[in-house]
Amino acid sequence: MSDSVIIIGITLVYLVMVLVVGLRARGQSSSSLEGYVAGGRHVGVVILFFILGAEIFSAFAFLGTPGWAYKHGAPAFYILAYLSLVPITIWALGPRVAKLGRERGYLTQGDMIADHYRSKPLGMLAGIIGVVALVPYLTIQIAGAGLLFQAATNGMVPFWLGGLLAFVVVAAYVFCSGLSGIGWTNLVQGVMMIAIAWFLGLAISERLYGGVGEMFIQIQQQAPEYLTMPGATGMGWGYFSTAVLVSAFGGAMWPHLFMKFYSADSGKTLRKISVFYPLYAYLLVPLLFIGFAGILAFADTPLERADTVLLKMVMDVANFSPWVVGLMLSGALAAAMSTGANLAHTAAIVLVRDVMGPTVMKNASEKTTVSVTRWSVLGLSLAAYLIALFNPGSLVMILLTAYGVIIQLFPMMIGALFMPQLRRASVMAGTLVGSLAFLLMEFVWSSPLGWHAGVWAMLFNVAAVAAWQRLGHASHDGHRVPNTSSH
């Protein structure tokens, strides 16, 4: 039996197991809109902990994180820096969002925004931005799955087929089970990916260098530029710091994370999760070890694509058995699939409820809405798959670009939650100005001072909100302070 056959066999068994778990999680609640979207609003600490963990740790974690450590060195620690701030946003925003969602029946960001500002167009704008940011994020997961299959099987399973296999499984259980299927599969896959990451990180360091400490000593002696800022590729403190800010505050604005606040059984559950959340972030530490291990291993023959460093280390350098490679592939696919499930689920809900709901589906019944949402899961997954076939660039850079778009919702959401004096015209102007500024700096002009373009765009956003507030103060636009009654 060839090594590739063993690897494929282990992986297919894993995919079948995930599919069975996801389909068995389907309950009666999955047939209602609230059940399909928010799990009936009674998701507890353990399941929600793994759901929120899987929101962050994806193909980006297993491929992009070691890729950045290998390519840049010390600047890769921006990932740990921003993750240390994520619990603050969960603690500050989560309980209030959950309370408002329970009282007023909110299921998406657009629901909250449209109701608070009395503006359906504003809710639609939030929905459009959400979908535009989510599809590239979903593309990352599909591209990651394709890369994993292709490398781990020496091309026996090509890129296009690997991505397709993983996301047929994801689309199937998300289509049938909604958030319930996502929750139980994320529990299984979360345990899997944490165990595999730590095993590989420690085993590779031990095999190649005699341990983690010895590895860093050798890097310090032979390639010290990788252990200091601005790193081997000259990434300055400006980009490092602004990437941390964009990722930390933009993370709270991702619809797939924000909407899970609605599913919590209480605000206390979310505060418990914010306390324990850093435990999940330890998953990234061994993945960083793998990236650093590749610096000296490939010093003479640099990799053409940094995102493949984990695969190359496992396949070509550390000489693991095909059984270990199969488990590695399963663990990495767990990261891609768990996040991909959340993204496909959320993008479909946002598209149907926030964008199509006020327009082409204005008078649709709940049954019709659930049905269209299920089919939108398949449609958006297919769109992301087709984009992935173009073999996009660095997974980390794709993600940072998506963060720059989604963070433009921040002033709008802060106004809805904590600053009722902000008017709808002000936040709409700010969001449009910020989004346009980001796209221009990202794709037309270079960002000043080498900062992440998302920070400059956010400054333009806030400036536009402040200017509009001041100019429009005399002509009040009818904005209200939300009442406290429930729907």
UniProtKB/TrEMBL annotation:
It is a multi-pass membrane protein. It is found in: Membrane. PROSITE patterns: NA_SOLUT_SYMP_3 (PS50283). The chain crosses the membrane at residues 6-23, 43-63, 75-94, 122-149, 155-175, 187-205, 237-258, 279-299, 323-352, 372-390, 396-418, 425-445, 451-468. Pfam families: SSF. Keywords: Membrane, Symport, Transmembrane, Transmembrane helix, Transport. Its main location: membrane. Belongs to the sodium:solute symporter (SSF) (TC 2.A.21) family. This is Sodium:solute symporter. It comes from Modicisalibacter luteus.
